[in-house]
């Protein structure tokens, strides 16, 4: 058979070639009839006589007798442990030594045993078994990946005219990965948004074990997909956070079948990625160093520091005070400088909650809200420093004194003032602090004679000190109400106005009266009454000047009036707000003064011009003309 060496060992141990076997077949056969070229029938008492004779003649003539060939049995292949291998070896590792033994039994003449890999004859060591049978041992040192699924054949032959017997096995191996790569673009990730990363592993058999680590921590939300016998994909699903920025994401690939195998020393392959995580700014607000937040008094300087951590860097930092935007204001001692805020010589109006805000391409974030508590002595509550009460003799009025103070542990004191003298409260007065209202004192006061009418002073004290100015309450006998104050025109249209005042005489029962007349008539056009000092007047003439008088009225009469002048708008004009109305009202005096000044200038100018160029005109005619100009001036002024 081509490519397969055949023949057997001769007596002297030399191999016979195929040509030698052909010559042996042509030698004389004592049992063959030369005339017919047929073997003669042999009659003998021993059935193996032919074989015995052939073997004897073979020794004599140096040739084998054709009729004596007995094929060997199928070769038996065993591993280094003596375990029989039928089709495939146990899994070997790369670098491990392979030792295979092939034993051949029976066969006449004695067979020749060889190892083959395809058509390649392999080196082998020949020996004999304990029973004297031929054995061929194959030594394969340090298996490589190229040996995976190699087909190795052990062949036995003892004749050149018969097919050799053979056993073929397949080399099985566990292969470690040869490459690992994190696939896809490695661009920025957004914090708190789901992300998916894919890692491709090549060369592992069986499939690779893929593990993911972020820093020192293993991630478990993973999937593994085998897309080909040679390729495994590891898929990681995770949500990065701001603290993952700059962390190393690692994909580790190994063969789980190799990890604990004897002789395995290889470490897992890995690929890594330094994460670029984009996140909204993380903002922290704190007081400047050296400040004690619980011991801040009026008059000292305060500093805030805004600490920002972000990726990408912030594009803007802003500040708020009690939810309102805060900007540099030198008149108030406010200095904003990017990530720092300074308040010079603070006072109680600076108390409140401060925050800083930072923004980048990922969004905007607000810091913690830091409360600034400025300790201060008591002051009268805003807008309540002076009050007026009208009280009849022997009637009792409750006077409420409200202050602002920090700390709020306040003690109150009251005094009575009349005609530039100060006196203690009379026995018919008492004050107390209502439960749950530590910053309020309520005085029950009962005037019994004319000497009990005057001014009440309310003072307060806390740990910081005494109030600098008292809260003042005027006590009047019952009479006409006090004149309303702070009157203003809130809105003006072509047909109406809205007028608002503040009431005086807290606690008094009173109503309010508005009298209206236009600029062309003396009689009152109309009047209105209201329980509140607020009037909405409609059905007025457009582009008309109106005079207004407002009163407070009670059972004892009415107060002194408050006078206002207002101009309704021409038809087709919209609404004028309070600011515009204040400008249009301005003052009748301002408008009159302006018009008078212009008219006077024109009169003087015209008079001088006429005097210069018309001195020859009769004096009486000049006087008449001058009177005409004066009348024009009067009309302009009106």
How would you describe what is shown here?
Residues 483-572 form the Fibronectin type-III domain. Residues 8-33 have a biased composition (Basic and acidic residues). Residues 1-33 are annotated as: Disordered. It comes from Rhipicephalus sanguineus (Brown dog tick). There is one protein chain. The protein has 638 residues and is mainly beta. The protein has seven domains: 18-68, no CATH class; 76-174, Immunoglobulin-like (Sandwich); 179-275, Sandwich (Immunoglobulin-like); 279-372, Immunoglobulin-like (Sandwich), CATH 2.60.40; 376-473, Immunoglobulin-like (Sandwich), CATH 2.60.40; 485-586, Immunoglobulin-like (Sandwich), CATH 2.60.40.10; 590-637, no CATH class. Strands 4-3-6-10-9 form a five-stranded antiparallel sheet, with no helix packed on it. It has a five-stranded mixed sheet with strand order 15-23-25-29-28, with no helix packed on it. Strands 24-33-35-39-38 form a five-stranded mixed sheet, with no helix packed on it. A hairpin with a 7-residue loop joins strand 11 (151-157) and strand 12. Helix 5 (588-613) packs antiparallel against helix 6 (619-637). The longest helix has 26 residues, at 588-613. Residues 1-66, 581-594 and 613-638 have low confidence and may be disordered.
